[in-house]
Amino acid sequence: MKRIGVTGHRSIPGEVLAHVTDGLRDLLDGHDGPMEALSSLAEGADQIFADIALECGADLTVVIPSGDYEKTFADPEALARYRRLKGRATQEVRMDYAHSTDDAYYAAGTFIADACDRLVAVWDGLPARGRGGTGDIVAYARGLGKPVTVIWCDGVERD
Fold first, then answer.
1. Distance between CA atoms of 153 and 61, rounded to whole angstroms?
2. pTM
3. How far is CA 50 from CA 8, 9, 99, 107, 121, in A?
4. Distance from C-alpha of 5 to C-alpha of 155, rounded to nearest angstrom
5. What 8-state DSSP symbol labels residue 103?
6. What are 104-136's pLDDT values in tens digits?
7. By the 8 A CB rule, do 61 and 92 touch?
8. Which are the contacts of 49, defined by CB distance < 8 A and separation ≥ 6?
9. What is the pLDDT of residues 42-54, one digit of tens each?
10. Neighbours of 25 (CB within 10 A)
11. Helices (DSSP H) in 30-157: which residue ranges?
């Protein structure tokens, strides 16, 4: 089974959204054979990836950074999407953190990088804004020698 993990920004500018969605769909829809998608289901890239992976017939593994992770969702719609996607997951992995901290996010991101065959990064190429951010997880995966596919539009930065 091919295992594809995701890391990416929570905030995706409108001018990049269609490109990101199309890029994820091309990557996931073009895969032959059984597939497992690994995501923390954060708002933005993680949820888009998970939705598309499920549409493409993948099994979804949810990697939850902390016991209070749901409290990090300020947008009620994003929380509802999280709960819907989590309910469709085949497997759930919980990191051993009570609270959502940078260390918890880093642990979840490195777990995904360790477990996947390929990491897809919805990433503007800039350094992480906090430990466990997209830039950190990309660097970690590359350090492992994992293939990383970056999906973004040149010259556009996240908010």
1. 28
2. 0.95
3. 12, 14, 23, 19, 13
4. 25
5. H
6. 999 999 999 999 999 999 999 999 888 899 999
7. yes
8. 6, 8, 24, 28, 37, 39, 120, 122
9. 999 999 999 999 9
10. 17
11. 45-55, 76-87, 102-115, 134-143
Length of the chain (residues): 159
Instruction: Tell me the two tokens of residue 103.
Output: 């260390």
Q: How far is CA 153 from the centre of its chain?
A: 18
CA 139 to chain centre: 15
In the block, residue with structure tokens 């992770």: 69
Residue 137 CA: distances (Å) to CA of 5, 10, 57, 61, 89: 11, 14, 26, 18, 22
Q: How far apart are CA 11 and CA 13, in angstroms?
A: 6
| All domains of the chain in start order, with CATH | 2-151 (3.40.50.450)
Handedness of CA 37, 38, 40, 42 (dihedral sign): negative
